């Protein structure tokens, strides 16, 4: 068994002042001949590679923080940190560092970092002046103490000396004692001085001071001092919020007292940073970097402790999916998992990967499949947020799960179909949930998102799955809108968008289904009226001509040109005929030149002359969609009558909201209503109708 005492994570501070995880390994201190000195070595636990090789320099300032962290700087803007799994291992390495530097291991910092601009002045200061002399901690001296603390902030070396003085004399707890006295006496002047003192001590940016100030017996007094900002007429009531309003809910009892304490501490420190402390000025913006690190490492530790407690997380998911769980309890469980996922976003990529893999192994996706279908809107909203974290982390993992579902469940409760139905039936007038679910769906079905997958067949398999099991659910509202022989221009827009993709898969489907026939019938029935419908249909055929979509041109000319050749007020259809003849001539010339046997035709020509084989792959999907439409439409109409209070019957025909987003094409102007009114008002007999195509 490996020595867990020496197990560490190596971190480096990046340009954005955030810690990057460089890997996990085991640390040792040994003499390295090449560096000519005792050095810290960290070898990766995965493959034994060298993660860190750092000579312990006699002049480097090492700091020990939170009992399990050692932090130091090796060069300008290059900070390093070792986070130990166990306190004993941290103590061993700390003693070795202090031994090399000849320092007392009882201290939490081995050197006083010296700013280069002050180094010469520092050499001239007498030895007895190395520490700042603090005034006695008395009520009458609070103004003097406040002036001292605020005066050192512009000088790095004086900040260091003041921090050492505050630690060596136990000064912080004495100051907090005076705070309680001032508050009892309602001494506003003293309380205002204590605000300046505590704020200044935080800006000293020292982890050792944070350990004292954020301990259980001090942190609420620190918050109390920060309530008395001299700029405010009345003090804030932060302690009341933290103790009465903000309640810590244990959805599953946390038996580890250290973990519970760490959660409380992290929440309160985050509150101090985000809510209480004013936005730092340009001069102060780097003063709280150690506070950021303090919160960061706390969060890493919390996530790691929860992640390693499989009994706790297993119980969470067991209760989450148990039918006997009360609604209020399930709501708390879902919100816990949501906050847990949000917490993990502060982790580095390697840690975040391990976190989501743990959740996947514990059954997060099957659990979401259940809770996302529940009636409780809050539960569904929180579950959707969790699902978004998973999709963002690994769309491939989600796809792999949903492709296995048909073997175990009905189509109606497939996870993606649940998402689609909630998107369509969003009860929010602003459609906030629908927009979020639409984005998740788009990520999952985006082919470009699949190209980077290590599984080369993912694109084919998942899209086939989606067309077979989900497409009929997605298109049910659109198909319902065009049922009963309605001349719906929502349908024409959709077809225009599909053709705009210039995807031969869709083109072959359009040809096989003879989907141009109703479009051309609509054009012929419209007569010679010049309106939006006429313009939209003409633009559709003009696009096919200009883009030279050969398969559609051939289909249109072969099957519909006799009905269209009489239309002469535009040259669109004659142009289609011309394109068709040009392509036939090119094909004839090519055949005559090479005299090839029909079996040797290249792939492009096969696609042109024979599309029967190409359509075989889609027949199963098409049959599935045809068989399922009546059932999906029936369920849709039932929901529309009021069972689910769906809203798509209002917005889908006009804006084609979902499908527009999925294919990402530009909409037509929404002025068809005016045209419909004009058509209704038109009383005169229209000119002779063009002959209608036989169906």
Automatic annotation (TrEMBL):
Question: Taking every annotated instance into account, which residue ranges of this chain make up the domain Serine/threonine-protein phosphatase 4 regulatory subunit 3-like central?
Answer: 144-488, 491-582
- Record keywords, A-Z: Coiled coil
Q: Name one GO cellular component term.
A: nucleoplasm
For the region Disordered, what residue ranges are annotated?
Answer: 606-625, 669-695
Gene Ontology biological process terms from the UniProt entry: DNA damage response
Record field: compositional bias (Acidic residues): 606-619, 669-684
Q: Provide any one GO MF term from the record.
A: protein phosphatase activator activity
Name the coiled-coil region(s). Answer: 577-604
Domain (PP4R3 EVH1-like) spans: 5-101
Which superkingdom heads the taxonomic lineage of this protein's source?
A: Eukaryota
Give the family per the record: Belongs to the SMEK family.
Its job: Regulatory subunit of serine/threonine-protein phosphatase 4.
Protein's recorded name: Serine/threonine-protein phosphatase 4 regulatory subunit 3
Q: Could you tell me which species this protein originates from?
A: Scophthalmus maximus
Query: Encoded by which gene?
Result: ppp4r3b
């Amino acid at each position: 068994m490996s020595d867990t005492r020496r197990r560490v994570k190596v971190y480096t501070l990046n340009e954005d002042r955030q810690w990057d995880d460089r890997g996990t390994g085991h640390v040792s201190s040994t003499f390295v001949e090449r560096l000519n000195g005792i050095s810290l070595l960290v070898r990766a636990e995965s493959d034994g590679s060298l993660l860190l090789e750092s000579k312990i320099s006699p002049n480097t300032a090492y700091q020990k923080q939170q009992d399990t962290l050692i932090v130091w700087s090796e060069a300008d803007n290059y900070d390093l940190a070792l986070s130990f799994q166990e306190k004993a291992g941290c103590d061993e390495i700390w003693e070795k560092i202090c031994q090399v530097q000849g320092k007392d291991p009882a201290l939490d910092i081995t050197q006083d970092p010296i700013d280069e601009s002050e180094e010469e002045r520092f050499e001239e200061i007498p030895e007895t002046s190395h520490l700042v002399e603090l005034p006695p901690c008395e009520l009458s001296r609070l103004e003097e103490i406040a002036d001292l603390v605020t005066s050192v902030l512009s000088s790095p070396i004086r900040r260091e000396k003041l921090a050492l003085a505050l630690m060596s004399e136990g000064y912080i707890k004495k100051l907090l004692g005076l705070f309680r006295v001032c508050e009892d006496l309602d001494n506003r002047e003293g309380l205002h001085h204590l605000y300046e003192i505590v704020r200044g001590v935080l800006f000293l940016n020292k982890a050792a001071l944070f350990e004292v100030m954020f301990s259980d017996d001090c942190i609420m007094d620190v918050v109390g001092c920060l309530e008395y900002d001299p700029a405010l007429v009345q003090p804030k009531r932060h302690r009341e919020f933290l103790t009465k309003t903000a309640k810590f809910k244990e959805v599953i009892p946390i038996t580890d007292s250290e973990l519970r304490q760490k959660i409380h501490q992290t929440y309160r420190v985050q509150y101090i940073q985000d809510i209480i402390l004013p936005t730092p000025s340009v001069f102060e913006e780097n003063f709280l970097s150690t506070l950021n690190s303090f919160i960061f490492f706390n969060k890493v530790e919390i996530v790691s402790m929860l992640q390693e407690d499989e009994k706790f997380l297993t119980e969470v998911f067991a209760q989450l999916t148990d039918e006997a769980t009360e609604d209020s309890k399930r709501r708390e469980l879902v919100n816990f998992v949501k906050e847990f996922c949000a917490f993990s976003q502060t982790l580095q990529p390697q840690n975040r990967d391990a976190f989501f893999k743990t959740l996947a192994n514990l059954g997060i996706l099957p659990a979401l499949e259940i809770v996302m279908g529940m009636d409780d809107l809050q539960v569904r909203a929180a579950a959707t947020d969790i699902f978004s974290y998973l999709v963002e982390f690994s769309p491939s993992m989600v796809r792999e799960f949903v492709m296995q579902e048909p073997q175990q469940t009905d189509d109606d409760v497939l996870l993606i179909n649940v998402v689609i139905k909630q998107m369509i039936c969003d009860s929010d007038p602003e459609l906030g949930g629908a927009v979020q679910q639409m984005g998740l769906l788009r990520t999952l079905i985006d082919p470009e998102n699949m190209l980077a997958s290590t599984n080369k067949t993912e694109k084919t398999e998942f899209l086939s799955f989606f067309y077979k099991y989900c497409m009929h659910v997605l298109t049910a509202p659109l198909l319902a809108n065009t049922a009963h022989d309605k001349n719906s221009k929502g349908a024409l827009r959709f077809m225009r968008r599909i053709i705009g993709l210039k995807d031969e898969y869709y083109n072959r489907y359009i040809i096989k289904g003879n989907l141009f026939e109703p479009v051309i019938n609509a054009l012929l029935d419209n007569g010679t009226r010049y309106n939006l419908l006429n313009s939209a249909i003409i633009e559709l055929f003009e696009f096919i001509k200009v883009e030279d979509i050969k398969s559609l041109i051939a289909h249109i000319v072969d099957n519909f040109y006799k009905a269209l050749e009489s239309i002469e007020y535009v040259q669109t259809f004659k142009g289609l005929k011309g394109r068709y003849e040009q392509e036939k001539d090119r094909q004839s010339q090519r055949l005559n030149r090479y005299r090839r046997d029909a079996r040797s035709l290249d792939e492009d020509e096969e696609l042109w002359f024979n599309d029967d084989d190409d359509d075989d792959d889609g027949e199963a999907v098409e049959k599935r969609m045809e068989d399922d439409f009546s059932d999906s439409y029936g369920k849709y109409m039932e929901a529309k009558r009021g069972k689910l209070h769906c809203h798509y019957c209002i917005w889908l025909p006009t804006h084609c909201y979902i499908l527009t987003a999925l294919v990402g094409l530009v909409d037509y102007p929404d002025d068809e209503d005016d045209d419909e009114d004009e058509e209704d008002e038109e009383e005169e007999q229209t000119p002779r109708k063009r002959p209608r195509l036989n169906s």
